[in-house]
Amino acid sequence: xxxxxSIVGYTQADGVRVRLLLEDRFLLIDHAQMYSSQQSLGCLSxxxxxxxxxxxxxxxxxxxxxxxxxxxxLPSTLQSQPAVLTIDYCKVKNDKKATLDRVxxxxxxxxxxACEAWIENLLKRxxxxxxRNKRLFVLINPFGGQGTAMTRYKKYSxxxxxxxxxxxxxxxxxxxxxxxxxxxxxxxxxxxxDAIVCCSGDGIPHEVFNGLSKRTNAATAFKMPVxxxxxxxxxxxxxxxxxxxxxxxxxxSVVKGIPISVDLCSxxxxxxxxxxxxxxxxxxxxxxxxxxxNMRWMGESRFTVGLIMRVLAGAKYPCRVSVRILHESRTQIxxxxxxxxxxxxxxxxxxxxxxxxKYGTVHDPVPEDWKSIDSSSLAVFYVGKMPWMSSxxxxxxxxxxxxxxxxxxxxxxxxxxxxxxxxxxxxxxxxHFDSKYLHYYKVDAYRIEPxxxxxxxxxxxxxxxxxxxxVELHTGLGTMLSRTGEFQAPGI
Length: 492
Ligand SMILES: Nc1ncnc2c1ncn2[C@@H]1O[C@H](COP(=O)(O)OP(=O)(O)OP(=O)(O)O)[C@@H](O)[C@H]1O
Prior knowledge:
Rossmann fold, 3 domains, PH-domain like, kinase, DAGKc domain-containing protein, elongated, lipid kinase activity, Tumour Suppressor Smad4, single chain, binds adenosine-5'-triphosphate, YegS/DAGK_C, 22 strands, eleven-stranded antiparallel beta sheet, alpha+beta
């Protein structure tokens, strides 16, 4: 039998009769059907346990399915009392900020069974592309951001996860590297959870991907979706997957998240192999990210101030870059972007282990067909796999989740300072993409060998040894939970 699309109920506060209609994209609380009912007012007096309906929603009249977390019916215990239908949802403002809310209606005893079926219909629509009651493994970095991750998680995330009836296991990380160890060694990870949630900055997801890579069944383990509740100082993963750094909205997006496959990269340095999911930097960007600790008192502006100081001083970072460039003209990159925008590639392999390295490690000879660039005056070396590096830096506007490419940006310090500033100002909206003063390449493997004795290398925002490293991409190897099934960026 088809599930019912509508049900009649009564508002609790004033006993007004309403029809709750399941439309294509939203639940409509139909005012046209509203009129006072003496009969329902009669039964209202005996109900005291549920909150009044949100007047805002009644005025607004609809709740889109994405925002619906859960609905259930509290059956009547006495013949004379109606049952109570509650709908938990998030009120979402245009700037993607969410707050948890609940609306309740009284349901006549004779409609209880129809209401149960209606609820099932509502939940089906509300969880169309994703699993209900997700089993989430939440890793909380107590030192994330200003050390407020746990308090913020409890205040903004936990109530939404509870309202969505998710099954949640929370663990606090105790030291650097702890998250990787937990993920590497956890028994039954794939059987017991639907996603790993990093309540942190980008450091914990970096550890999680590296932990997954060390599992004996790494390639299979990478099918486990990873996502972020933004509680750190750098929360690029969430920005790209959700399109907002509002913690409540990010939590709603975890509840409703769609698993997508994403490219991941292997990085070899010294004698180790790592996984990187976000970015690799050397030069001004890494310097400002990791080399401005002495300016922490400035807050977020330490990065901008550090950058201005370095541009004015004409900072240079001599190095040798060897790279497999696949596309280098902006016209070509635009074409390739359109071709790969809807790419649905999923990594498959007969082996469950981590894929072999096609180009060997940083200690092997550089493949002959790679282009080598020796530079004594490089200012910026920045490679990314996601468009947003922070909320004011759309550094890689052409980046796509699984196009099989890394986006590489090179800026030389010999260009006029004015142009460097124009580029850096344009980064906020990705306008630098068209600047003729920078190189923007689509690549799938490279090596960088710094020539200075000391400096900073930032991998996914984490500090690495200042030593040569090599990176190669694995198309579609990883999985993340995205709000819409894509990265949240305007594109090119
Ligand atoms: N209990 C802990 N004590 C110390 N370090 C920790 C702890 N838990 C996690 N870490 C480490 O903290 C680092 C930063 O984590 P995260 O990215 O979550 O926060 P953040 O505020 O964005 O940090 P940062 O600004 O330092 O990059 C990670 O490398 C992680 O391994």
